[in-house]
Design brief:
The protein is α/β, with parallel strands linked by helices and about 170 residues long. It has a single domain, classed as Ribonuclease H-like superfamily/Ribonuclease H (Nucleotidyltransferase, domain 5), CATH 3.30.420.10. The protein contains six helices and five strands; from the N terminus they run βββαβαβαααα. Strand 4, helix 2 and strand 5 form a beta-alpha-beta unit. Helix 1 packs parallel to helix 2, helix 3 crosses helix 5 and helix 4 packs across helix 5. The two termini are about 20 Å apart.
């Protein structure tokens, strides 16, 4: 199974592609962070994210996409930007008929580290260990995107089977 994970954000949008299966060694296929300046026009920022996601979906052909679920923060402006970036990614996957799963940060932290309250450094260290990388992926947005993809490989198998069965019934 190949999963594209997205840690959405307007200033930094982490994207990681992981391949593998539950109970088997996972492999990192691609990881990057799409960046934009806070003073850049919103449409331009969203278009950059869409362009990168679309190119990666076409290049790596994942079986499904995992996006971090937007959660309430104190900074409403930050939540809106995160939600907009997530929406662009979800739409790009939808247009290709790919199932999309969303996971809370707590679910992802628990999946990769065993502790839903793990700190960023601990998550990054576990991502490196799980994927056999020499160092933590940097910045943290890259590690978080890979952690989302790992979580989906480990927990999202049922989602992929349901989506495949639904396509077969059409």
């Amino acid at each position: 199974m190949r999963v594209l994970g997205v840690d959405p954000g307007l200033t930094r949008c982490g994207i990681g592609v992981v391949q593998g299966a539950p109970g088997r060694r996972l492999e990192v296929i691609h990881v990057e962070v799409v960046r934009s300046a806070p003073d850049e026009e919103l449409g331009s920022r969203l278009a950059r994210i869409e362009d990168v996601i679309t190119a990666l979906l076409d290049r790596y052909r994942p079986d499904q996409v995992a996006v971090e679920r937007v959660f309430s923060q104190h900074n409403v402006r930050s939540v809106m930007g995160t939600a907009q970036a997530a929406g662009v990614c979800i739409l790009a996957a939808h247009r290709r008929g790919l199932p999309v799963a969303s996971y809370t940060p707590t679910e992802v932290k628990a999946a990769v580290s065993g502790d839903g309250r793990a700190q960023k450094a601990q998550v990054g260290a576990m991502v490196a260990r799980i994927l056999g990388l020499p160092d933590r992926p940097e910045p943290a947005d890259a590690a978080d995107a890979l952690a989302l993809a790992i979580t989906d490989v480990w927990r999202g198998t049922a989602l992929a089977r349901r989506a495949t069965a639904a396509v077969g019934r059409r």
